[in-house]
Amino acid sequence: MSPPKETVVAALIVLGALFVFLGSVGLARLPDFLTRLHGPTKATTIGVGAILLASAIFFSGSESTAVSLHELAILLFLFITAPITAHLLAKAALHRQVRRDDLTDGGTPTADDADAAERQVAQPSSPRGPDGGRERANDEAGQQDR
Amino acid sequence: MLNAALEIAFVLIAAAQALNLYRLLRGPDLCDRILALDTLGISAIALLVLFGIRSASTAYFEAALLLALLGFVGTVALCKFLLRGDIIE
Q: pTM here?
């Protein structure tokens, strides 16, 4: 393999692995689910894309295959499906959040509400949680206006 | 140089898998666990492709493509289940 080609392949591999690692750091360390969604859906996808591109360059130009297209198929599939996955996950998360607010009514936490109670421990200043309290405050203001 | 790059990439992706596993086991909500599982699958694709480069064999592409397909279908099915309480209506 010629030296410039090897350099390009090695650089793409290291860059891709770095992006995959940073995406997972985002998944593990960010505070909220909707922020956590950003790491894997963008950084990890571009990292895997770089590694697949490196593989395509590595296997192209040999005596059997002029251009290696397997990796490009995987790349295209991943780039198409990543936004769909992210969209569905965000929708499911919003759905669960809304249902939990309706069920608990901001009162005493039940066994079903264990993670919401965890969040309340993290923020003791707002006893109703970050979103429920604000919505309820808006409702009360609207009723006073009427 | 290619071997050194491969070693670095293997270590980084193994660390990424460990972080995904941490989020999969801990993750406060079900959505976190689904996301962690999806990311675990995607980094497994990266590992397979890197292994294919190291052994200079083209036999791993089919496995990577299958993993991508099944990971996507599985994630969509789990999200549908969370949204509707049912997968096939």
A: 0.75
- Per-residue pLDDT tens for A81-98? 999 999 999 999 888 877
Let me know: does A87 contact B80? Beta carbons within 8 Å: no
Using CB atoms, which residue from B35, B52, B83 is nearest to A36?
B35
The domain locations on chain A are: 3-82
CATH architecture, domain B2-84: Orthogonal Bundle (1.10)
* Burial grade of A129 (CB within 10 A; 0-12, 13-18, 19 or more): buried
Task: Pick from A18, A21, A80 the residue to mutate for testing the B interface (most B CBs within 10 Å).
Answer: A21
Tens digits of residue pLDDT in B27-64: 788 889 999 999 999 999 999 999 999 988 888 888 99
Q: What is the ipTM of this complex?
A: 0.91
How many whole angstroms separate alpha carbon B47 and alpha carbon A81? 19
Per-residue pLDDT tens over the stretch B22-33? 999 987 888 899
Q: For chain B, first and last CA: distance in Å?
A: 53
Q: Would you tell me which residues 70-99 of chain A have a C-beta closer than 8 angstroms to some C-beta of chain B?
A: 70-71, 73-74, 77-78, 81, 84-85, 88-89, 91-93, 95-96
Measuring CA to CA, which residue among B4, B35, B40, B3 is closest to residue B19? B40
From the list A13, A74, A92, the residue facing B68 with the nearest CB is A74
